[in-house]
Amino acid sequence: MNTSTITKLSQSDNPARTPITLTIAGSDSGGGAGIQADIKAISATGGYACSVITALTAQNTLGVSGIFPVSPAFVEQQLDAVFSDLDIRAVKIGMLSDAGIIRAVANKLRQYQPEFIVLDPVMVATSGDLLLEEDAISTLKNELIPLATLITPNLPEAVTLTRSTGQHINTSALQHTDKELLIEQLKTISSNAVLLKGGHWEQDSFSTDYLITTSDTVTISAKRIATRNTHGTGCTLSAAIASYLAQGCPLSEAVHKGKEYLTQALCHADQLSIGQGHGPVHHFYALHPSRNK
């Protein structure tokens, strides 16, 4: 090739600001949740993903067999590396395994002050067991939640976060009559916004989430999808919302678009055959060759 024919880009030809979203979470070796799901969701929704890993997990579609936390010092080193170089607009936070890591993340977020922070408070296993010690939950509430633009608890996580703020709610017996009480309690733990995810109200034919602010509560519903491939749904939703915020969407629009993206990823999840247990949602359904079949 004649090099004289190559057109060089001038400064004026530089692309527009790339919407970068940072995910701070644990690694899922099975690829369906955690950092891996976040990177897929951010990429599929039009953003650029970077990452800080807080823990390594030995995990597949059948469950988690081991967790190896990263030291708070190395979490801080990763955060310094990405924030000192990349123009990060939004941050999604997932699994934080102990109080030390929570403090390290909170301190660095106060230092670098990203525009948007979406916190998915991963605290309760599917079995109902707590994944965080009591001191870590307290640190999360005191150090990290006040920094968040949006927190996205599911039903057991919402109950765990609010249980010291008033009347105790039994998760296993929670009825729709308790919903208003839970929403009012959630308003007291965050000065910004909360997205209460309704997936655990499994008796409903629709999956209804509640976007809660101090002044209003908006319901966001989608038809419940019958699939066992639901691994990583919470990670995927919060990462997609953060990605849309980084791209300039207002909060309500980002939440609605994130919900629609997750719904479509669930609708197409059975196009995938991954593992022997609960497989992942289909993050890249729009690129799947059989999407219209």
TrEMBL record:
Keyword Transferase (UniProt): yes
Top-level lineage group: Bacteria
Database matches in Pfam families: Phos_pyr_kin
Keywords: Kinase, Transferase
InterPro entries listed in its UniProt record: HMP/HMP-P_kinase_dom (IPR004399), PM/HMP-P_kinase-1 (IPR013749), Ribokinase-like (IPR029056)
Enzyme class: transferase
Gene3D superfamilies: 3.40.1190.20
UniProt keyword Kinase present: yes
Domain Pyridoxamine kinase/Phosphomethylpyrimidine kinase: 28-282
EC numbers, comma separated: 2.7.1.49
Pathway: Cofactor biosynthesis; thiamine diphosphate biosynthesis
GO molecular function, a single term: phosphomethylpyrimidine kinase activity
Record PANTHER family: HYDROXYMETHYLPYRIMIDINE_PHOSPHOMETHYLPYRIMIDINE KINASE THI20-RELATED (PTHR20858:SF17), PHOSPHOMETHYLPYRIMIDINE KINASE (PTHR20858)
Protein name stated in the entry: hydroxymethylpyrimidine kinase
Organism name: Photobacterium arenosum
